[in-house]
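FOLDING PROBLEM:
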Amino acid sequence: MQWKETKLYSVLHLKCPVCHEGEFFQAHPYNLSKVGDLHERCSVCVTKYEKEIGFYTGAMYVSYAIGVAVSVSMWVAMLVLLPELGIITQIVAISLVMVIGGPLFYALSKIIWANFFFHYDPSKARLPHPSTTPEQR
């Protein structure tokens, strides 16, 4: 299996979970006017991203897990590396990271949720023909 065929590739690059080439989101996660907005369909494989109304409601659970994982990891790291920090400082640091990372966590939760239900299909990806140049693709 190649790196591009993994679900982790789709998640880390925010690409279509089916072809791993088309963009999943309309804009970067930190473009706050379009945060979390998806394309209706993939521009490469034409997969419809929303299976049913409210499909991405389940991404709340993924977002919660990401938030807990980040918060607990930060708290343990601060206890081990900076044991002299007070509880208020720890709470403020964790809160800042959660607020600043919020748009990214939201985007990650949606793409992870989509990858639970959509699977990579190499036949839907634009496979480069040996005689084509990158400009022709």
Observations:
- The mean pLDDT is 91.
- The two ends are 23 Å apart (CA to CA).
